Amino acid sequence: METLTAVLITVIGAATPLVFAATGELVAEKSGVLNLGVEGMMLLGAVAAFAVALTTGSATLGILAGAAAGAALALVFALLTLTLLANQVASGLALTIFGIGVSALIGRSFVGVPLQRLPQLDLPGISDLPILGPLLFSHDALVYLSILAIPATIWFLERSRAGLILRAIGENHQAAHALGHAVIKVRYLAVMFGGAMAGLGGAYLSLAYTPMWAENMTAGRGWIALALVVFATWRPGRLLLGAYLFGGITVAQLHIQGFGFDIPSQFLSMLPYLATIAVLVAISADGARARLNAPASLGRIFYPEA
Amino acid sequence: MADEGAPARLRLRGISKQFPGCLANDKVDLSLGQGEIHALLGENGAGKSTLVKIIYGVLKADSGALEWDGKAVAITSPSQARKLGIAMVFQHFSLFESMTVAENVALGLDDGANLDELSAKVGEIGRRYGLALQPERVVHDLSVGERQRVEIVRCLMQNPRLLIMDEPTSVLTPGEAEALFVTLRQLAAEGCTILYISHKLEEIRALCSRATVMRGGQVVANCDPRQETAHDLARLMIGEDFDQASKTAEASFGAARLRVQGLNMAAAAIHGTPISGLDLEVAAGEILGIAGVAGNGQNTLLAALSGEQLCAKAETICIEGQNAGDLGPRRRRRLGLAFVPEERLGHGAVPEMSLTDNALLTGYDRQDLLSRGSIMFARTRDYAQRIVQSFQVVTGGIGANAGSLSGGNLQKFIIGRELLQQPKVLVVAHPTWGVDAGAAAAIHTALLDLAHQGTAILVISQDLDELLQISDRIAVLSEGRLSEIMITAEADIGRIGLLMGGHGENGEAGQLDKQGEHHAAPA
User: Fold this and answer.
1) pLDDT tens across B21-66, in order?
2) Fewer beta carbons within 10 Å, N or C terminal of chain B?
3) What crossing angle do the helices spanning B377-390 and B407-419 adopt, rounded to 10°?
4) Which of B208, B244, B242, B246 is nearest to B228 (CA)?
5) Nearest by CB to B78, which of A161, A167, A178?
6) CB contact under 8 A, A164 and B108
7) CATH of B257-510, one of 3.30.230.10, 3.40.50.300, 3.10.310.30, 3.40.710.10
């Protein structure tokens, strides 16, 4: 039972950065902007959080710096695609490559420097409960924040007027413009929210998951987050499920390797990615439903009428 | 109706708007009195849409001034227009497909109302004005007619002082249109000004007290439509005389070219209407009209006829004596079927592709535009050019994107593309929706000529006048069932109206009960 609890806790660790990054990307995509730069924004967030936490000694400042760095890089993307009307796919890819390079440059002097892990928020009494205690009530603040982000996003998108306008802009930007909604402004905000969330995902990696900085330490998680948005058919609830499923597979393959099964480790490392592909195919099988949820203006450039 | 002493609700002076390559509005003056129903008339491309977009703040005029209740204003955004009390029903729907009716309505309002309260209000307005809508339904699954109702309800929610309506009745049944007129007259009597754009001249004569006629971006006439004949109004719009298409009595038709027997088909869309037990035959040289309110199975029937949805049994649909129920669209076209779908953009034409490419898409086979798998561009361009010329499509050239054409011109292009293929069977949906009088007459004449040459034509339309004008026989589609097929010349219009309203064989008895004939009803 102890082992199982330990495994489940590592699943939460693996899933949390994905929940952050994918939730942010989901909101940006719902507004009609496809930002493929998630990986780059996560890396910049990770290095900024690490650097600030290390130099100031304050984890809180580190977390804020991670979010700010992600949002700043997203602002560059928004400027390119929304104001200068550059192609979103190309700009997003460039953003990722840029993020990898810049984070490596900033992080040169931090490689191998140890950092105190983000503290757990233990609740006296409850956290000591068997199984449930360690599983549910002894995590750091970012894990709770990532979980809370899901109902908050659902509320925002489904129940709030601002969310309604955001979805309308992602659905049909010309019509939204004709009705007088500020397409560009809303998209700027959505893209920057996406960047801040990706930055938080990065901050979790460098402050809590493995409290250190290593070059390219996100190891493709940004791409997985992008796939998760499609996997979840743009629904935050399913996104949470998907992130934990994926985190589970990542951890499971580590444990299978650990138990010494006679399977080449390379195959096991492939597992999460194969699972992603399998799930994406399964989702596409019910095309009508997926299309209904996909923002119809996704990736399309908005030219305001003269 | 207008109060002469009060300042005009809205006055435009010398409005000009230049687009690259065309002067859309040229010093336009317009004055709308309080509580007046004012018609704005003009052909496609006359500049009406540009003018109303300027009024609604979507576009900015290059020069000119606006006065609202006698005070100079600059309307810079739709939200500011709404604050003044201006509401607008757009010609091209400004709806959000994956959202519900209630959400779509909420997006047109400036205050953040609670969605549940909004749903209740949508239902209430729907009942009051006869615009029935289910607030929780997703727009994606609504028919064109239902979508228009959403637009109208969205405007009425704002209690507007100036209501701009861009061809609002093109998809309503005569009964619904009449109900809408009652509403509009009631709104006008309450002091709301209505700017009414329509190509249905009879309607304008019945409804409007003043009319402004535009041609080529300029105001060419102001008149009282009640004092003019429909033909005079059309001549003012077009600037020259034209002939209304009319059917010559055809005594006999050839053999059946299209036969549908026992068609049952589930709807493709989630809230679509299935078709059950539908039989029909269209003979060579005949035009069969299918009337009915949108959302009664038209989409399913069209998909079944075009081959987008296949029938379980091949013999259900017979084209030129060949079983075609299990054939896809391409093989049906090879048998001689041509097809004009309801939606022009995205279904009838690819908006991002040139007219030449769009001509190729359905014409490649019957026009021999391919040679061993490669496209013969010279022939394709020639074909596109012939369509543009024969149907007087106003466009920058055959290299222009389909999406850049106005709705009416694109419709002319799509109809022309199918007609020039000399089909044996033509299925056409809403042939003149959003098309001006001159172009509509041209399309009707072309359809009649084609029938005269022996093509069997099936026309699905909501415009009953159109069907009465061109069809030889007529039937009504209601809730996925086809009424008996009547000879148009002998058909009782009142009865067709009842059938369209869903009061067919069974419904009629209920109708009589309501009128007080209790003695006829069984206990």
Assistant:
1) 678 898 999 999 988 999 998 876 788 888 998 999 888 899 999 9
2) C
3) 120
4) B208
5) A178
6) no
7) 3.40.50.300
Beta-strand relationship, B275-283 and B256-265 = antiparallel
Provide ipTM, 2 decimals.
0.79
Q: Which of B96-110, B133-147, B374-388 has the lowest mean pLDDT?
A: B133-147
Nearest-Cα distance to chain B for A231, in Å, is 18
For A305, which of B59, B96, B140 is closest by C-beta distance? Answer: B59
Q: Does A172 touch chain B (CB under 8 A)?
A: yes
CB contact A182 to B (< 8 Å): no
The pTM of the full predicted model, rounded to 2 decimals, is 0.72
Interface A-B: count of C-beta contacts within 8 A: 56
The mean-pLDDT minimum among A151-165, A177-191, B142-156 falls in B142-156
Taking CB atoms and an 8 Å limit, are B94 and A175 in contact across chains?
A: yes
- Sequence spans of domains, chain B: 10-238, 257-510
Looking at the structure of chain A, the number of domains it has is 1
What CATH number has the domain bearing residue A172?
1.10.3470
User: A300 in a domain, yes or no?
Assistant: no
Distance from CA of A180 to the nearest CA of B (A): 5
| B58 in contact with A, Cβ within 8 Å | yes
Q: Which CATH architecture has domain B10-238?
A: 3-Layer(aba) Sandwich (3.40)
Angle at A20 (CA atoms; ends A14, A26), nearest 5 degrees: 125
A179-183, B215-219, B437-441: the lowest-pLDDT one: B437-441
Residue in B19, B90, B106 nearest the CB of A178: B90
Tokens of B26: 């040229």
A258 within domain boundaries? yes
Closest of B196, B201, B216, B211 to residue B16, by C-alpha: B216
Is residue B482 within 8 A of residue B476, CB to CB? The reply is yes
Q: How many CB atoms lie under 10 A from the CB of residue B182?
A: 12
**pLDDT-based confidence at A306, cuts 50/70/90?**
very low
